Structures are given as C-alpha cells and as structure tokens.
Amino acid sequence: MSAGLYIHVPFCRNKCLYCDFYTGGSRIADWQKYVTAIKNELHTRRNELNEEVSTLYIGGGTPSLIPSENFTDLIKDIQSITGKKEWDEFTIEVNPEDVTPEKISIWKDLGVNRVSVGVQSFNDKELKVIGRKHSAREALEAMALLAKNFHNLSIDLMFGLPGQTIESYRNTLEYLNKIKPQHVSLYSLMLEEGTAMTHLVNNRKVDLPPESEWLKMFQLSNDFLKSLGFERYEISNYALPGCKSIHNYSYWQGQPYLGLGPGAHSYDGKNTRRANPNDLKGYVKFFSERKEKNNEKKFFLEEILNEKELREEFIITRLRTTQGVNLDEFAQKFGEEATNNLFQSSLPFLNSGELKEVDGFLKFTDKGFLISDPIMASLI
Questions:
Q1: Quick check: bond before 263 cis, omega within 30?
Q2: Taking CA 360 as the corner, what is the angle to CA 356 and CA 362, rounded to the nearest 5 degrees?
Q3: Does the predicted model carry a pTM greater than 0.85?
Q4: Residue ranges of the chain with pLDDT lower than 50?
Q5: What pLDDT is attached to residue 61?
Q6: Which residue of 188, 261, 299, 364 is 20 to 30 Å from 167, comparing CA positions?
C-alpha cells in the first residue's frame, strides 16, 4: 500500500460566493512564513506515514498563487524529506488567470504531471454571478497553454448555477470537444450554510434552475461525457481510460494520507483520523520555528474510529465510486452478520433500481447516484 501527501493552500484572490472551504484573502498571505510552516510540519509529522508516499496533491484555496521562488523552495524541501523527485501523480490546482509560461515551466521542472483547472463555466454571465474572476476566453487560453505542456489535465465544471439553462450548460460542455482534457470533475451547486450564495438565494436575489432542469443537466452530463469516451468512476468524476485521479481515488479506497496546512485532514489507513484546526495564524505561529519542544505538542485534533464508524465509513467511501462495495472484503473486515445487515438494508433500493449487485459488488446505478446521500444514510 502506498500513501498520499496533501498540502492545503488557504489563500484566494477572492472567495467564490458558493465556497465554504477554509480560505482567506491572498493580500494577507506571507508566503515565506507559510511555506516555512508547511516545511516544518512535514519535518515534524513525516514519520506518521510508514508507507512510501507516491502521490502529491497541492490544493486549496488557490495554489497557483504561490510565487515561483516559494513554490520551488517548498517542493525542493519535500523532495529532500521524502527522497522522491518523481511521483506517480503530482497535481496542482490552478485558476485560469494565474497560468503563465513562467509558472508552467517551474511546475514542470519540479515534477508536476497533472493540473486541475477551476473553470466552472464557459459562460461569462454565469462566472460573474458565482464570483469567479476569469472570463471564458481566459479559461480557454489557459487550457490551450497547459495542453501544450501537460498530458494529464483535469477541468472543474458546475451545473445548477443561477441563471443557467439547459442550452447554456450544453454550450459549456461543448467546449470539452475543443480543449480535450483527460479528466472532468462535475459538481452541482450546493447551498452551504453561511456562504454568500446561500444568502443571495434565500433572499431571492438570484434564482436557481428548477429541479426538473437540474435533473436534465445531470443526465446531459453523463450522456455527453460518455459520448466523448469518458468513464464515470466516482459520483462527480469522469476520466478517459487510465486517467482517473490516483490521489483522490485513494481516499475512497481507505488508503493513508498526510494532510499539511490549516484545515487539512490526515488518515493512517487503519482507524485514526487527524484534522488541523481552521486557524491560519495559530498554524503559522505553531510551526514558524521547528523547536524540539514542539515534538511533544500537537496542532491537530485526533479521532480514533470505532468498528461501527469504520464500517459506516467503508460503506460511504466505496459507494461513492462506480466500483462500489466489495461484499467479500466487507465480510472479511466486519463479519457475516454485518454483511447480511447491509444486504437487507439494500433490498428496497435494489428492488427500485437505485442499487445493483454485480459480481459481488454493491453499487449505485445512475438513478441511484441522483439521490445517493439519503440512500447511504439509510444503509448506515
């Protein structure tokens, strides 16, 4: 078994109106101090992973904001600590407006081999209403520049946006024919508590598409991507053959990973989860100097999962994927009684066509993915 390394970059030029991730404005970023803190946390916590680290994922926030000299310093230190200069997968998340030839050259030289681009829409009105700062033209130019330098590109798109129609969403999807990414992440707009978008919707400042149109967009996504040769491998993720995200897929398979930065999460692959508090100032202060006394202190919160929690998590994470729950593996981990209980709880959804059992795997149908959350709640 291999492990993943995740680095959270909690800075953005502006916060998108729908976003509930832990981020702050880039104006407050002291990049040198933040990179030093990340390096020191890795030095302190590297031994939490016994497995070889095979994937590196830098997410956020907006990692493409990191100045080139600070990015170089960070990656060189990671290479030194892990002893790796080549990764099975090294992903960086970027925004179109940050993509420049200089940054691309730095990313390539330091081993980045996969780029995930936050586009969301190719309609300027839709981009404006959700608070994105790039235009559709800038997104197309960035994708074209990246395609000349990387052979594994992922693009994030959203549906169910304010003012979005079936036709405007179809037009966004049609751009995939032109830019030809290897991976697509499709997300429905979710109204998260406390976000600006939720406030706007609740106060009827903007209107979302009706549910009937949302369902048509969902089906359109599946049909359109299938016609382009993409395979769905997780609720929101589609890839050309051989191009699924190795790092993210490992999360859903229960593999270990170490998360660095405020708000980042870690898992030992067994029963221990750790989470860094959403506290940028506290994080930078704690890791500003690598002192010996900090070896006895912990910045993270720790949770030891009991068997019930492990069983529930196994069901939820595996069902997120199109592979589904391996019932033999489930029985080996949790026993025949738990497996029988799972199967009995699944019967109503098997009979109604939201779940199916194929070659010993319990999995969602396309119909089931539409209402996956309440189904999973019923199974656990």
A1: no
A2: 35
A3: yes
A4: 292-293
A5: 84
A6: 364
